[in-house]
Amino acid sequence: MSVPTIPMRRTLVLEPRTGLPVWRGTALRLASILVALLAAALIVELTGHDAVRVFAMLWNGAFGSMFGFTETLVRTVPLLLCGLAVALCFRMLLWNIGAEGQFHMGAIAASDVALAYPDWPAWILLPTMALAAMVAGGLWSLGPALARAYLRTNEVITTLLLNYVAINWVLYLVYGPWKDPFGFNFPFTPEFSPNAILPSLFGRAHIGLIIALLIAVGMHIILQHTRWGYEIRVVGESATAARYSGINIVGNILLVMVVSGALAGLAGMMEVSGLIGRLQRGISPGYGYTAIIVAYLARLHPLSMIIAAFLFGGLQTGAYSIQILGVPLATAQMIQGAILFFVLMGEMLSLYRVRWVGVPAAAPDAPRVSTGVKPPA
Amino acid sequence: MELLSYQALVVTLAAAVSAGTPLLFAALGETLTERSGILNLGVGGMMIMGAVAGYMVAFHSGSPWLGVLVAMVAGGTLALLHAFVSITLRASQIVSGLALTILGLGLSSFLGKPLIGRPLPAKFDTVPIPLLADLPVVGPALFRQDSLVYLSYVLVIAAWVFLYRTKPGLHLLAVGENPAAADAMGANVFGIRYVYTVLGGMLAGLGGAYLSLAYSPVWIEEMTAGRGWIALALVIFSMWNPARVLLGAYLFGAVEALVFRIQALGSSASPFFLYMLPYLFTIAVLLATSGRVLRQRLGGPAALGVPYHRESR
Q1: Which residue of A has its CA nearest to B106?
Q2: Residues 226-285 of B with CB under 8 A from A
Q3: pLDDT for A35-64, tens place per residue?
Q4: Beta-bridge partners for A353
Q5: Could you tell me if residue A328 is inside a domain?
Q6: The CATH number of the domain where A78 resides is what?
Q7: Total domain count for chain A?
Q8: Which of A4, A187, A199, B210 falls 20 to 30 Å from A266 in CA-CA distance?
Q9: CA-wise closest residue to B118 among B58, B45, B44, B208
Q10: What is the value of pTM for the model shown?
Q11: Does the CA dihedral B188-B192-B193-B194 come out positive or negative?
Q12: Could you tell me if residue A354 is inside a domain?
């Protein structure tokens, strides 16, 4: 009697990998970024631009000169602060996509104080502006936090929608009640008094950079060496474990979201106080969204985020300079999105091995879909 | 009062239907996607890519319908990427969706730059339906619209019938609720999820094309203005039911129409406060829905957003 053979078919299978050395993870991430840049270059080339020239100018604009380097540092500040803000939330699997709006609310609050008390000495005015900004940002994320904690409302959508509200609020103010009467109807407030401007380090770089770096280090210490940081990490990794160990999940949701909003608000204050010197239309080219990518690329580690923020600051700076070639500013956004996507893909591919194997095929006469009738036992 | 005259009411209703249509397309597609258990936050990116692709093709070819077709392909392609990453690679659907939205916005601005300020040779025009358009109130509102709006009516009916009255629709529901059981039943979980994710993306692209080819037939950077997120909220608000998606879309459209109406009346309120209204309204609706969901223990597809691991059965 012949043995019946099992029909086989060849298919792609994902097998989980065990034990990936750390360096390989970083190398994979760099490779993913490279692929993303190549894809972007392809699109640039296909739309009739010279990709080599565009990317060369992108690099030069960001790192090729002292001015560019300073501009990159300047852009690092909001990206780092917002990145830290969203990373804190992401650690707990809270998707705060509202950093952009919290940034704007912080800017509004800081501007309110700056415009109302221009004669206060700087050592009182600046901390007050910072505090106001942090309160405003924190309140802006408190709403979605409460909704998430008590109503289980999806915080992605609530935080996101509030971004649009906040941006329109800024527009309302700069086109309306706060508009500079001597500004020829341009959408900006009067310039802040010198007391309201953050001291500068060199060129356009201001002490916000130092503060952001300190906060990054501080957050690293908090996450790794304090009880609160431990709680945050546990809630993110296993809600069940968190509940069993008595961690107050609701309290942490609220606290983390508020702190996150406060940090983003602080970033807004630093932008209007340290860099721009007034509240105006377009204070952010999407820092709150880019920060998400920065945070993800840094694997939510505060110290790695410093580097990631610097790189993306460079991308944003470079994007300004390539506009001369007729390439829109949105190119930076396109590259960022591609990077996030390819890094995500790369990460998953690193978790699995793709193999082409033979598996038993389904018996040819087995019904694909149940007819809903159970055969008698 | 000017706001309440019969004429104003009819015009506003018609505007509500028109404004709600892009939301309707996107939310209908996302409903199907989420019913299969996949969360697609990339809807916004697919809408705007559909808008720019449709505009580009319609501009160069002169055919709006061809633009619609290509828009759907564009949306579907992005959705295919999302599907691959979410279903096969089982990566974070949230991150993937966000990445595609950011990518879509940037790419669309990049591609659309040469087209700013350049009008279309042909767009979708209003096509009144002979007898129905003369009905009081509903006539002009529902039947004096353009072809894509009529298409949306057909799609909603088709989706409802499909979901609740056919066997494949039942499989879709099963896959979203309990993929393991559906798999054991013989349904192809991965295949179904792929199909409805791509279909959702195609419909989102269609919604975007409606914006750029019919609603406000120009190309403006980021012209979707967050409609993708409103569509996502709409899906939740409609409890993943196509009929409710229709009603919800027109409700949200009405808010937008009211914003225009108030502005047209020369209100002295800052336009920016008015622009906030659709987003605030969406948040309010979302909160109300969450409250109701919690109190009545309703919910969406149980397996929404959870990657399916066949080996772990």
Answers
A1: A334
A2: 226, 229-230, 232-233, 236, 270, 272-273, 275-276, 279-280, 282-283
A3: 999 999 999 888 888 889 889 988 988 898
A4: A15
A5: no
A6: 1.10.3470
A7: 1
A8: A187
A9: B58
A10: 0.89
A11: positive
A12: no
